[in-house]
Amino acid sequence: MAEVKSDIEIARAATKKPILEIGAKLGIPPEHLLPYGHDKAKISAEFISQQKGRQDGRLILVTAINPTPAGEGKTTTTVGLGDGLNRIGKKAVVCIREASLGPCFGVKGGAAGGGYAQVVPMEDINLHFTGDFHAITSAHNLLSALIDNHIYWGNEQNIDIRRIAWRRVMDMNDRGLRHIVGSLGGVANGFPRETGFDITVASEVMAILCLSTDLKDLEKRLGDIIIAYRRDKTPVFARDLKADGAMAVLLKDAMQPNIVQTLENNPAFVHGGPFANIAHGCNSVVATTTALKLADYVVTEAGFGADLGAEKFFDIKCRKAGLKPDAAVIVATARAMKMNGGVKKEDLGQENVDAVKKGCANLGRHVQNVKKFGVPVVVAINHFTLDTEAEIRAIKDYVATLGAEAILCKHWEQGSAGMEDLARKVVALAENGRSQFSPLYPDDMPLFHKIETIAKDIYHAGEVIADKSVRDQLRIWEDQGYGHLPICMAKTQYSFSTDPNLRGAPTGHTVPIREVRLSAGAGFVVVITGEIMTMPGLPKVPSSEKIFLNEQGFIEGLF
């Protein structure tokens, strides 16, 4: 058996083309590409604004079942499908999110795909890339500093320091910073207060950058951020501290989409990176809408399972940006079906058709949920070498009972050559005009009813429970004019429920609401459920232990 190369070895051996050539494929002139080295660039705001009158291509969403330790390969499938569409003669662009350093050094790894379906330069994309996350972190923490500084110099806005809603952020998993006390050390350091850190991908500034249409919209949304409340409960906005202009300046370059390439030298936009379990889980609106003007097909992904990523893609991103997806791909694996069917990770190498059949309930729930949005669905079975024909057949037969088709995909091993069947199916779904997309709930539905609708229609929960204080807060926001906003559920990615250990397709469970946060700038209400954390921690053995520079000066251990 031939030696299996690691993702980073495959990426390093890639024959990359100069980024100006990749841009030329999409008709982007060299003067509108702002290079970061030879293999990555930003697309100018001027060029983007010039594309507004052009017709849109077709939008394809790649989503997945609930993630398992067995791995599903959603980004890999997204990249592979983009290459597959180009292979069959379609002009296609991939639009994915940037990687957070937290999971890179934690347990999940990077976000550049895998095997022979990757975007490159893989090391740069998974580490500092073009500095977007650093800019977002800096803009967020500038606002944090301005709040404490405003209070120190007399508190002209009468901020109630017990009701400051703005925390700090950093792009790393660090549980020690979740809850802290700041400004200790005496009078010169300000007024001590409780605060804490979230991870950068949970920042409202990240969400704002990913939902803004241009710099003017960005600055307005930054000004709309509610940073605190006065003693009379009236909100204090970022613009009240004159923070919006300086924050926009820090984000000026970060607002421009990044263009890189796949291993097969096809264009890929990598821009923005909110998590889907604690944020809205989609790449930037400006990247997706720009790609739609430049290509026949745009393949984008939404984070984690369809209960989180796809629901937020449809109900937040598409609603806000006026996008209408033409088809959706749900990624599944035989290994994941077996885990959902009760098989332990160490036993996944053994054929177990009964467990596959039992675990298919999770896949079926996601298929049915996506169909509720009026979008046609196909299932991509991401192939692993130990999968058996009987296991694959069981998945295909099950999906057929749902009125959909499951297609075996071998892009990890074969690149676009292993993706032709899925590419053709996606084209067939997209071009027959069957998509009747509509969000799950209307804008004018009360906020708590929106939460219940998601919990009952998507999670199949029996009830939503929340303290009176949470319900009262939602009503106050409605009275203040925020009742039309969509909901962004912060929930475990591992289950339809709020219990990460409850696999399969549970019904009748309870969704407890712990906290609600108003993201007035981003334009949604964050609903925090169960034990979900907005600042993750590192595992006992973090991935960082295996990352190092080899004797040649190359990075090893990234995946």
Automatic annotation (TrEMBL):
- Chaperone among keywords: no
**Gene3D superfamilies this protein is in?**
Domain 2, N(10)-formyltetrahydrofolate synthetase (3.30.1510.10), Formyltetrahydrofolate synthetase, domain 3 (3.10.410.10), P-loop containing nucleotide triphosphate hydrolases (3.40.50.300)
Give the source's domain of life in one word: Bacteria
Q: Which UniProt keywords apply?
A: ATP-binding, Ligase, Nucleotide-binding, One-carbon metabolism
Return one GO MF term. Answer: formate-tetrahydrofolate ligase activity
An example of a Pfam family matching this protein is FTHFS
Pathway assigned in UniProt: One-carbon metabolism; tetrahydrofolate interconversion
Q: Catalytic activity, per the record? A: (6S)-5,6,7,8-tetrahydrofolate + formate + ATP = (6R)-10-formyltetrahydrofolate + ADP + phosphate
Is ATP-binding tagged as a keyword?
A: yes
Enzyme Commission designation = 6.3.4.3
Q: Where does ATP bind?
A: T68, P69, A70, G71, E72, G73, K74, T75
Q: Which family does it belong to?
A: Belongs to the formate--tetrahydrofolate ligase family.
Its name, as the record gives it, is Formate--tetrahydrofolate ligase
Its taxonomic placement starts with: Bacteria, Pseudomonadati, Pseudomonadota, Alphaproteobacteria, Hyphomicrobiales
